[in-house]
Design goal:
GO terms for molecular function: histidine phosphotransfer kinase activity; phosphorelay sensor kinase activity. The chain has ten helices and eleven strands. With 563 residues, the chain is of the alpha+beta class. α1 runs antiparallel to α5 and α2 packs parallel to α5.
């Protein structure tokens, strides 16, 4: 039964430990998966926003470029260069961006490497666009230089005079008839037909050139013609440079838009891959949780099955234990009944034998016969004591032992017992002494027979385990106010009892280890303790190995007073 309980306890502890370890493992895995999913989500947001930012920078640079061409503002040209440089830097960052492939499967790693190779190829296109950008900067510098050279002003001294003449003309008016005037009025014509009249304005512009300028013009006419040709050539060169500048800018913008578009496609593909990775992480986390729940459920079911088996086994064991207990009780009762019956059957003849031996001891015997008779009496007394102890133990087990409450004199009772034990002490050449403190004639209410039985057991043990020296019995009777108690100390100079043996000294069937070996039934001290406690007393022992022993007991008595 204890083995089964231990197994169930160990199974429960193992179940708890396994469940805790599994929970900690799953917790760490879930935390790792969630952290990786959050990192992937952050990378997806970052990768999706950066191409848009680069495209915005490119459009802003394009706007600045167009504006700088219109108004020729150098600040806008520098801002255009700065914006385009930022766009180049952003695209370069996107091309050089690395991704964590630790959580990807082999197929995903292969695809990611292909995209990375594609980014490397795009880097070459970016270098080409940057070279075009450098050419654009050179062309822009040439354009500024040509514009500065074309600023040539020709100043001349001339005088312009404008004059205006006004002439009024009037002619004869031909008067028409009445009906003709009505017709002309209807048609909104002049009523005077055939007439003419009006105002004539003559404009005249005269340019007066002074003689100095006239001479300079005549002299430097050929130089001006050369300058004009140079201006035409510079203008043509300027227009060609502008066309090249616009073409380069368009090519750079087109290439960068293609780069950004390709990078966006790659990032979208990466986003899809990492979304799949995040989804796989979610599925793996869910799978771990499901496995944990399933394992916990299986372990719980296994533990429940073990518990059910334990309960069933426990019930069966209890039934078997009850049956075996009843059987053991019945067998013990039968043995005890048989022992009691045999003890009674043996004690009666043994009592008769002791009586005849006492009679023989009163007759005239030779020393040899007296010695032999003493040996027989000692053996008979020992056998009778063993029988009495056995019967008393049986009565105690069956709660049949009763304590009588009769008047007796403690001093007289103790003297009778000690006198009967004197022969055994003399035989071992031990000095047996008795000392009584108190009123020797005082009588108390109690069981004198049980007191004799206690003294016989304790004194006989003292004599048995003492080889040399003496055995002292000191008794003290104290009666105050009609109540008191008897205290008895039995002191011997025997082998003594070790501290380890004193723990179980008053236990049933316990025998101390002595030079004589284990002798007796081991019931004497147990019966003494039980008899003393039945009379509401107490017993104790003080002893050291090799230094003798002192047994002390105290029994409360009431003083007997004759009415």
């Amino acid at each position: 039964m204890n083995v089964l309980s231990r197994k169930i306890l160990l199974a429960f502890l193992a179940f708890t430990i396994i469940l805790v370890i599994a929970a900690l493992f799953v917790r760490d895995k879930i935390a790792e998966r969630l952290a990786h999913t959050a990192q992937v989500s952050h990378l997806m947001d970052l990768n999706n926003s950066r191409p848009q930012q680069a495209l915005l920078l490119l459009h802003q640079a394009e706007d600045l470029f167009q504006s700088s061409l219109v108004d020729g503002d150098p600040a806008k040209s520098k801002a255009y260069q700065a914006k385009l440089s930022l766009a180049f830097a952003e695209i370069d960052t996107l091309l050089n961006m690395q991704h964590d492939t630790a959580k990807l499967n082999p197929e995903q790693r292969k695809q990611l490497h292909a995209w990375h190779d594609q980014k490397i190829k795009l880097s070459a296109d970016l270098l080409s666009a940057r070279h075009d950008f450098d050419s654009l900067l050179t062309t822009s510098s040439d354009l500024d230089l040509a514009t500065a050279q074309n600023k040539l002003a020709v100043k001349s001294s001339q005088k312009v005079q404008n004059s205006t003449d006004t002439i009024n003309q009037q002619g004869k008016l031909k008067r028409k008839g009445f009906f003709a005037r009505i017709k002309e009025a209807i048609k909104n014509k002049n009523a005077y037909a055939g007439g003419s009249g009006g105002v004539v304005i003559n404009h005249r512009t005269r340019i007066y050139v002074d003689s100095v300028t006239q001479k300079l013009r005549t002299k430097d006419k050929s130089n001006y013609l050369n300058k004009l040709k140079q201006l035409q050539q510079s203008n043509s060169k300027l227009q060609e440079t502008q066309r090249q500048l616009i073409a380069l800018n368009m090519r750079i913008t087109h290439k960068m838009e293609q780069l950004i578009s390709t990078i966006k496609d790659i990032n979208y593909s990466l986003t899809d891959a990492f979304k799949g990775l995040a989804f796989n992480s979610y599925l793996e986390t869910t799978s771990l949780l499901n496995k944990l729940y399933l394992s916990a459920l299986l372990l719980l079911l296994a533990f429940a099955v073990l518990l059910i088996v334990f309960v069933i086994k426990l019930g069966q064991s209890e039934d078997l234990l009850l049956k075996e207990n009843e059987r053991a009780v019945m067998i013990a009762r039968q043995k005890m009944d048989l022992l009691l019956h045999m003890s009674h059957e043996i004690r009666n003849p043994l009592t008769s034998i002791n009586g005849f031996l006492y009679i023989f001891s009163r007759t005239t015997l030779t020393p040899k016969q007296s010695e032999m008779l003493g040996t027989v009496r000692a053996s008979s007394d020992l056998l009778l004591q063993t029988l009495n102890d056995t019967l008393d133990a049986a009565k105690m087990e069956g709660s049949e032992l009763k304590i009588h409450n009769d008047p007796f004199c403690p001093d007289k009772t103790l003297k009778e017992v000690i006198e009967s034990m004197a022969f055994s002490a003399d035989k071992k050449q031990l000095q047996l002494s008795y000392d009584f403190q108190g009123d020797p004639e005082a009588e108390v209410l109690g069981d004198s027979f049980r007191l004799k039985q206690i003294i016989v057991n304790l004194v006989s043990n003292a004599i048995k385990y003492t080889e040399t020296g003496n055995v002292k019995i000191n008794a003290t009777l104290k009666l105050t106010g009609g109540k008191g108690g008897l205290t008895v100390n039995i002191i011997d100079t025997g082998a003594g009892i070790s501290q380890e043996q004193q723990v179980n000294l008053f236990s049933k069937y316990y025998q101390t280890n002595s030079a004589k070996g284990n002798t007796g039934t081991g019931l004497g001290l147990y019966i003494c303790k039980q008899l003393i406690e039945l009379q509401k007393g107490s017993i104790s022992v003080k002893s050291d190995a090799g230094k003798g022993s002192t047994f002390s007991f105290e029994i409360p008595y009431e003083k007997y007073e004759i009415d």
